[in-house]
Each structure stands twice: as structure tokens, then as C-alpha cells.
Amino acid sequence: KLLDCGEIVGIVQYFQHDLFQSIPKTLYFQKTIVAHEHYGRHSAFLSLPHDRYTPEEGQIHLKHILDLFSMLYGTWNHVQSIYGKDNKMGEFLNQALTPIVDYVCNQNRSISHLFSTVEYTALKNGNQRVLLESKHCLDYLKSKYGLKDGLIGYDNKVLYSTWDSDTTFYLQLMFQLRKQLPV
Question: I want to staple 53 with a disulfide (CB 3.0 to 4.6 A). Which of 10, 48, 70, 133 is the partner?
């Protein structure tokens, strides 16, 4: 099934042989342009309506999507090692790529939407008690010491932040980049 705009048709194809290596960078299917990028044992496909996008724009958008994904979540091999074991790769990719595709293709330039599935949200969804305690701690510091805004983090992940979503995004991004720097 192809959507009107910006659907990732496939992102990780893990095979013993490079089956997708010979596929051209741009395919045409009915009224859709499909941009394709192949590297190593991975291939990515992005479908876009041909009446709104050129093949060059499709390639550029696919590159931006892949770059944003790598920046936020790491390499494809890293993601495969985490989610591939439990067969949760499809679920994770759908959750992670939807805001990125919206951000790149659909001009939904909301940083909070882009950032909605980055690492710290899994803890938010799974442990409301930690979030509530973090919120109470920051509220106490605000009232007692006049703290304007702050965040509570652990292991280079933002657990709770009172800053706006843009600031929180850039702080989380700095934590992510810091983890990737050589010691």
C-alpha cells in the first residue's frame, strides 16, 4: 500500500546476498516515485507522489530522512542488534520513522513531533512514577530556590524537562553526540 506522501516502503532488508544492489536509485510505480538507497546489506525506499516531487527531491528527502534517523538512533546495525532479536524491527521503524518522514516530507516542522520518539520517551511511557518524582523534584527546586527551568537525566538521556521542546531536543541531541565521541 502506498500513501499519498512520504511513506517509507521499506527500510532494512537483511539478506545473505545483496539482492537490492542492482535496483536503480529511482523507480516509478503508478503515480508514485520511489527513491532507493542501497548500502551494505541495507536498502531504504521512500515513495512520493510524482505530481508533487521530482526524482531529485525524492533522493534528497530520503537522504535527509536517513541522516536524521542515524543522528537520533544510531547506525542500522545498532538498531538491528537491539530490535531484530525480538522481531520488533517493523514496529520500531514505524514508530521512529513516522515523525521523521512528517518532518522532512510533509513540512510538519515541529521539533517536538520530530523528537516524540527519541530514546527518553520510552522511559516516559513505561514509568510514570519516575516522571512524577522528577516533576515534583523540579517543582520543589523552582519554589525553594527560584530555579527557572531544568531537566533531570540519567545515562545521557533526558528523563524529564521543564524547558520548551526545542531546547529539550537540542540538549538530548548533545547527550547523544557526547555518547558517540571517542574516549
Answer: 48
